[in-house]
Amino acid sequence: MDFPTDISYTETHEWVRTSGSGKAVVGLTAYAQQQLRDVVFIELPKVGKKFRAKDPCAVVESVKAAFDIYVPVSGEIIEVNTELEDRPELVNEDPYGKGWIFKINMSNPNELKALLSAETYKKLCEKGKH
């Protein structure tokens, strides 16, 4: 399983990639999509909506289950991956690339410090905690 080291992770299996400009891209980890199996629907957050860190903002449904996606850092949604509306399977096929879910303009980039490194997240997954 892939655990890219250039991104941060949450205990609820979201990943965050920052650009250094106060903006971040968020998606579901390879571990999460593997546990879900085939993703069949994603309810995307609304562009312009503001969230606080750990707020639920979207829903992913698979053949196995449905669960919330949480905002890893506070901010405003500035873009969503509308391609997922027609091709939700991109989350399975390319979770760290074309399967991204939303972009956020962070209101408090210091919250990134509370996220997990690839090594810490990998250990969490190996323990089977989800």
Question: What's a concise summary of this model?
Answer:
It is built from four helices and nine strands, in the order βββαβββββααβα. With 130 residues, the chain is of the alpha+beta class. The strands form two sheets. Strands 1-2-3-9-8-5 form a six-stranded antiparallel β-sheet.
CATH H-level superfamily title? RNA polymerase II/Efflux pump adaptor protein, barrel-sandwich hybrid domain
Helix tally equals 4
Helix amount: 10-25%
Main beta sheet: strand number and arrangement?
Answer: 6 strands, antiparallel
End-to-end Cα distance, whole Å, is 16 Å
Instruction: Give me the oligomer status.
Output: single chain
What structural category do the secondary elements indicate? alpha+beta
N-to-C SSE series?
EEEHEEEEEHHEH
Rounded radius of gyration (Å): 13 Å
CATH topology: OB fold (Dihydrolipoamide Acetyltransferase, E2P)
General shape: globular
CATH architecture: Beta Barrel
β-strand amount: 25-35%
Mean pLDDT: 94
Number of domains: 1
Instruction: Give unreliable regions as ranges.
Output: none
Number of strands: 9
Report strand order across the widest sheet.
1-2-3-9-8-5
CATH class label = Mainly Beta
